[in-house]
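Here's what a typical entry looks like (DUF3558 domain-containing protein):
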Amino acid sequence: MARNRYPHGVIPLSGHGVSGRYRRLSYRRRAVAALAVLVGAVVVAGCSGGRQPLPQSTADSPPSVPTGTTSASASAGPTYNAIGLDVCTKTDSAQLATLSLTVDRAEAKQPTSGAGDACQFSMHTADGHKATLLVEASTPPSIEEAQRLFRSKAAVTVMSPEGPIMGLGDEAEAFSKQSQPGYKYSEYLMHARSGNLVVKVWLAVGGNEFTPKATLAATCQAIVKATLSAVPRS
């Protein structure tokens, strides 16, 4: 029996041994293996940071706010809380002395804004005419709401504007009205805002003659100023 020259069973397809087609097949296999390694490296590089990631869109994202800061509108003034203030006891009736008014009854009320405290004083003059004083201290949850509450007064009142008042809170203004429902009836309204606090004072006095506006204005301003100071900060 002839001896097998190829103990592993690999028989060349030509008479040139391993230098013929067998060598070309070996090269082809090595080339395919090298290509597979190259493709794998490209794929791994693409998944592991070979490219810079696309930046995230911030078009629909809220701006970041550093911890411990507040918006400009929220820090535009002090914050007050007038709930449970008890305006009836905080209002000094001595401020009505220049008008010779006597308080008959004080009735606690809810401000028109719904947040805060108010009181209505029923009074009479020296000659027996009726007079009324309403004091309101409103503290909406935000300064923006207090601003809207303050500015809404000019849109709803039937009283005539007396103009802005300087040096009283962040903003202040007054209104007046005179009528004759069988007697001379003088009304004066002053309101002021400081932060989220809005104070309104309405004073109406009946008489044989109209009460001078300057007298009503001085009384209202004194009560507004005192009420602004009486409301605690929250």
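The longest strand covers residues 184-194.

More examples are in the samples folder.
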